[in-house]
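Usage

Read records sequentially. Each one opens with the input sequence:
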Amino acid sequence: MRFQGPKNCGGGIDELAYISTNECRFDGQEKSVVCTVSSDSTVRAWDVQEGTEVWSSPLQPAALVNLAAYPQLQLVVTVDKRGLIKTWKAENGREWASFSLPTSSSALQACDHPETPFLLVASAEGVMYALTVPQLQLLSWTSVFPSSPTSLLCSPDGQWVFASTQDSDLGPKVFYTQSLLCVVEDEPPVSTTLPVLLTSRACWAPDETARLMVMHRNSDNMRLAITTYELGTKQSRKGVDAVVQQIASFLLPDTMMPPHLMKGHGSQVVLLVSGLELVLFTIQGLQLAAFQDHQKPITSMWVDQSRVLTASFDLSLRVYMWNKENKFPVLKSCYHLLGGSHRWASGFTHVESDSVSIVGVEARSVGTSILRSYCFNVQHGSDDCVD
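and closes with the structure output:
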């Protein structure tokens, strides 16, 4: 693994995403490109291998706070703190279309639906909008949690959307996306409310089309629990109904701090970050592993079929590799990647990866950010921890 060096950004980076396609290529022609949005009111694209800026947008009217990427469409979507949404061509940064929310945004979610990709946006007032891409034409809007900021998670196959509001007595909802895209007049979208309260986190199982894991408070003793659901549809006299089946549930250990990060792996494993600890459970509650490799709290986690990455305020990144030869996958700690100097930086705040590189956002003490990139090398005949 080789370090590519920092890339200076004009302001504090709020979000980043790869806009290059996630293809595993080690033929010397690989090119990883990431986009960032930051408080300096610009969206920028960066060549990870070269460590150079590809393009930068003109100064926007307000600070950009979130983005979503469609690598196959070579499209980037941004939203600013006032709720103005824009699409950009990924290859040159040219603005394509815009759409204004009546209030600020609380969530932005790219959905790769089998028929047509679309964009979901939640406003701070609890309204969910479905928009076409790249034109940003309104398909539908739905009041989900009135006057409450809403979080959104689209399923891996784009068929379902999970909507929740933090620590509320209002149960989270699941929407069938086809009913958001093809609206029937005077008919509400197909949805159902999950029978849990005080939801704090959720994630999808990436190897299943409609398996959802939800972290919530247990109604009996208010302990944190993780419940897993399978989603489906059935025909009724009124059309289509959403069907939810609980398939597993377990209580988290009393000694565990409330997790602040949650990701799924495969079909049976959930990864939780609690403070500076990374813990793996099966959906039935069997603890598979626990890692305490960081010296300060973990701020970000990235999970794919090959690796797990964690970023921390201790100014380091950790790289773990999956071994799937056993009944349940085993995670092995492999790399410890250091950032810059604690004199200038307050730690890593984000980490993401594709098949050939890793990018981390290092927050500077003066309120700006830099990108640090690391690229994998292939060493044939070596162990599983070397790329």
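Summary fields computed downstream for this record:
- The radius of gyration is 21 Å.
- The chain has a mean pLDDT of 89.
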